[in-house]
Structures are given as structure tokens and as C-alpha cells.
Design goal:
The chain has about 90 residues and is of the alpha+beta class. The chain contains 1 helix and 4 strands; from the N terminus they run H-E-E-E-E.
Length: about 90
């Protein structure tokens, strides 16, 4: 039983390392048949004065009639910013 718990913990820790950075949706706007989604993600950097720093990205996608995204393009908007300066 203990060995199974240890194995499970190791597998979960390893799979967490494979995941990309956490992205938080800040805004989503539709314009005709396109959608713009603004997200922030932690940079892993921080200072005592500012706290944690984030990158702001925008993803532009076409929207199909069934609601699925097509032809998405990602762009970096701002790097190393405080979250409260974005929204």
C-alpha cells in the first residue's frame, strides 16, 4: 500500500512538471467571426517591490458556426508586468 502511494505521488509530480505555464483568461472579446482572448501567465520572476510578474498574451482565432476555434495566432503583448497593471 505504501509503495503504491509513493509511486502515485512520483507519477503526479512528474506529470505536473510536463505541463505548460498556468494561463488565466483576463478578457475575451468577439468581433464578427473572430475572437480575441487575453491571458496572463506567471514568469516565475518576482521582486519585493512588485511581487510576482506575469506575461500578457493575446490569442486571435476564427470562430466556426459550431463554436470551435480555427486559425489561431498567439502574440506576446507585454512581458514581466504586474497583474493589476493589465486590468
Amino acid at each position: 500500500m505504501l509503495m503504491k502511494a509513493i509511486t502515485t505521488t512520483i507519477l503526479l509530480a512528474a506529470s505536473a512538471g510536463c505541463a505548460g505555464p498556468t494561463q488565466v483568461l483576463v478578457s475575451q472579446r468577439y468581433a464578427g467571426e473572430r475572437v480575441a482572448r487575453y491571458t496572463i501567465e506567471p514568469t516565475g520572476q518576482s521582486t519585493e517591490a512588485t511581487g510576482a510578474l506575469y506575461n500578457l498574451r493575446v490569442r486571435l482565432c476564427g470562430v466556426e458556426d459550431n463554436g470551435s476555434d480555427t486559425q489561431c495566432q498567439d502574440s506576446m503583448v507585454l512581458e514581466n508586468v504586474q497583474p493589476r497593471s493589465v486590468y
